[in-house]
């Protein structure tokens, strides 16, 4: 069934999604994928990240973040090609003081109510994936609140808020929500809320499994073998590992695609930063990858809880996958795990030397049926079920319920 014709189990509703990232500046996260599908049968407002506060002026990315947020503010409200509305609410980048939070509450409520009126949205379903939205969720006339936990928020080194304030916000949302959806296995397994739900990550399978006809010009000139990565590059990256491998294997070429933080400073003739590319352009770059890699720091608590959608996208390409030991993928067929620099080198060498077409089919089979269409349908049915059971929505789903894994997931 074509995606445009698929019944996602929810229709005629107004949905306001408080995302943890901006629509404009990241490769699509779970909220982007799910909301653009729900927008085919519902009215959807995607609220760009309500910042957790600015980093200190000494942070290398201070002005980069300011510039990016100001650009987003200038767009304020736009209807995008996927059929939903995107709002960049104007707030003060301060949440630590009570006075600033009261002012931000006022700014947010006024803007959101105005935009909901302009977009003809009433009695919305609130999908909250940003803890700083906690102060406004009770002032929008919502009929249902869903809280998505996609990261260990209090371990985020990029936040100016104290871990204690983040934990307080997180607890308030958990107590208020009809259901708490966890997007990572480790997060879900450690959770103790009775109304929790496992929202497994998914993949835009056809987008990555269908090989592009042409290779992008700026990567085609790079000698092979190519170790490829795409995504945001900041403190999560293991810079030391990249530098060591680049030195020990000068014939291997690293290609890193995406927005690069000023924290990442690597100077090596076989490490290539190609900058940000659009989501639609990615297959033209992945075509030239020999091995897909995820060189994330193993010392970072925040990343240890990550569910990295890009690993599923890597698997969909069928190409070899070598990653740091993320809990989410420790037992995933077709994924090579490394724990040391030498282990990384050995994994890549094995992939380059022994990988077969049969291995490729195994990797693709692992994620073939775990698509965003399937996941959106599951979520749509969950929301519809909760709405039908109002006002006793907190009684459903039962304790510890999770999405049933689809075949091959």
Give a summary of the structure in a few sentences.
With 409 residues, this protein is of the alpha/beta class. It is built from 14 helices and 14 strands. The protein has helices spanning 30-38, 62-75, 98-118, 163-176, 185-190, 205-209, 217-220, 239-248, 282-286, 301-304, 309-317, 341-354, 357-367, 372-388, and strands at 14-18, 43-47, 77-79, 85-87, 125-128, 144-149, 179-182, 196-198, 226-230, 253-257, 271-275, 291-294, 321-323, 335-337.
Number of helices: 14
CATH topology of the largest domain: Rossmann fold
Alpha carbon gap, first and last residue:
20 Å
CATH class of the largest domain: Alpha Beta
What is the alpha-carbon Rg in Å? 21 Å
Mean pLDDT: 88
Q: Categorize the overall geometry.
A: globular
* Number of DSSP-assigned strands: 14
Percent helix, as a range, is: 25-40%
* CATH homologous superfamily grouping of the largest domain: Glycogen Phosphorylase B
Task: Quickly give the structural class.
Answer: alpha/beta
CATH architectural grouping of the largest domain:
3-Layer(aba) Sandwich
Order of helices and strands: EHEHEEHEEHEHEHHEHEEHEHHEEHHH
Task: Give your account of this protein's structure.
The structure is a single chain. The chain is α/β, with parallel strands linked by helices. It contains 14 helices and 14 strands. The chain has helices at residues 30-38, 62-75, 98-118, 163-176, 185-190, 205-209, 217-220, 239-248, 282-286, 301-304, 309-317, 341-354, 357-367, 372-388, and strands at residues 14-18, 43-47, 77-79, 85-87, 125-128, 144-149, 179-182, 196-198, 226-230, 253-257, 271-275, 291-294, 321-323, 335-337. Helix 1 crosses helix 14 (372-388) and helix 11 (309-317) crosses helix 13 (357-367). The longest helix has 21 residues, at 98-118. The two termini are 20 Å apart.
């Amino acid at each position: 069934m074509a995606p445009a014709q698929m019944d996602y189990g929810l229709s005629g509703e107004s949905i306001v999604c408080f995302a943890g990232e901006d629509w404009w500046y990241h490769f699509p996260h779970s909220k982007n994928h799910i909301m653009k599908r729900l927008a085919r049968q519902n009215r959807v407002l995607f609220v760009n990240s309500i910042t957790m506060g600015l980093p200190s002026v000494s942070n290398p990315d201070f002005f980069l973040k300011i510039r990016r947020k100001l650009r987003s503010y200038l767009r304020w409200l736009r209807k995008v090609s996927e059929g939903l509305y995107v709002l960049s609410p104007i707030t003060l980048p301060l949440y630590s003081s009570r006075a600033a939070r009261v002012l931000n509450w006022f700014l947010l409520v006024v803007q959101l109510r105005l935009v909901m009126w302009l977009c003809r949205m009433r009695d919305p379903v609130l999908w909250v994936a940003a803890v700083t939205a906690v102060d406004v969720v009770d002032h929008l006339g919502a009929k249902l609140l869903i809280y998505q936990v996609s990261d260990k928020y209090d371990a985020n080194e990029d936040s100016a808020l104290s871990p204690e304030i983040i934990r307080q916000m997180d607890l308030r949302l958990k107590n208020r929500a009809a259901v708490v959806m966890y997007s990572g296995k480790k997060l879900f397994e450690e959770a103790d809320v009775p109304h929790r739900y496992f929202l497994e990550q998914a993949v835009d399978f056809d987008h990555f499994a269908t090989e592009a006809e042409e290779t992008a010009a700026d990567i085609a000139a790079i000698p092979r073998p190519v170790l490829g990565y795409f995504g945001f590059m900041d403190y999560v990256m293991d810079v030391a590992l990249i530098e060591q491998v680049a030195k020990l294997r000068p014939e291997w070429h690293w290609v890193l695609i995406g927005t690069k933080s000023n924290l990442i400073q690597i100077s090596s003739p076989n490490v290539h930063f190609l900058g940000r590319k659009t989501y639609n352009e990615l297959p033209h770059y992945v075509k030239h990858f020999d091995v897909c890699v995820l060189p994330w720091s193993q010392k970072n608590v925040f990343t240890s809880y990550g569910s990295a959608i890009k690993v599923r996208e890597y698997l969909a390409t069928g190409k070899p996958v070598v990653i740091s030991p993320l809990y989410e993928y420790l037992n995933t067929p077709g994924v090579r795990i490394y724990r040391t620099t030498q282990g990384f080198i050995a994994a890549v060498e094995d992939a380059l030397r022994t990988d077969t077409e049969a291995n490729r089919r195994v990797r693709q089979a692992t994620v073939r049926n775990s698509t965003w269409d399937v996941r959106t349908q599951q979520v749509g049915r969950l929301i519809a079920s909760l709405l039908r059971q109002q006002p006793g929505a907190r009684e459903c789903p039962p304790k510890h319920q999770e999405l049933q894994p689809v075949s091959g997931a």
